[in-house]
Amino acid sequence: MTKAEVVQQIASQANLTKADAEKALNAFVSVVTTSLKKGEEVALIGFGTYTTVKRAARSGRNPSTGKAIKIAATTAVKFKVGKKLKDAIAG
């Protein structure tokens, strides 16, 4: 599903204009991004929880050459599915 399709679905289900639905979606993405940058957890009860995880620097291999390379430390986003969403998908 593309962003435009998500906006369309939000607009129809919440009885909003497409412009208002897109503003709401953009605001949601902005709030989640800002919170994760601060290292905060974003928990949507029943849907899931967004958290950040720090990954240490490590060594790896270039798959095409086999040469050893250094992989820098990074922060990644992790999503844990909530019970309500998990149950809905499981059927």
- Per the CATH scheme, the topology name is HU Protein, Chain A
Oligomeric state of this protein: single chain
| Strand composition percent | 25-35%
Ends apart, CA distance between termini: 20 Å
Strand order in the largest sheet: 1-2-5
What is the succession of H and E elements? Answer: HHEEEEEH
Unreliable segments (pLDDT under 50, ≥5 consecutive)? Answer: none
Supply the number of helical segments. Answer: 3
Main beta sheet, described?
3 strands, antiparallel
Give the fraction of residues assigned to helices. 40-55%
Secondary structure tally: strands = 5
What's the CATH architecture name? Answer: Irregular
From the alpha carbons, calculate the radius of gyration and give it in angstroms: 18 Å
Shape: elongated
CATH superfamily: IHF-like DNA-binding proteins
Summed up, the domain count is: 1
The CATH C-level name is Few Secondary Structures
Describe the structure.
With about 90 residues, this protein is α+β, with helices and mostly antiparallel strands. The chain has one domain: IHF-like DNA-binding proteins (HU Protein, Chain A, Irregular). It contains 3 helices and 5 strands. The protein has helices at about 5-15, 20-35, 85-90, and strands at about 40-45, 50-55, 60, 70, 75-80. The strands form 2 sheets. The chain has a 3-stranded antiparallel beta sheet. Helix 1 (about 5-15) packs across helix 2 (about 20-35). The radius of gyration is 18 Å and the shape is elongated. The two termini are about 20 Å apart. About 0% of the residues are buried. The model has no long low-confidence stretch (mean pLDDT about 95).
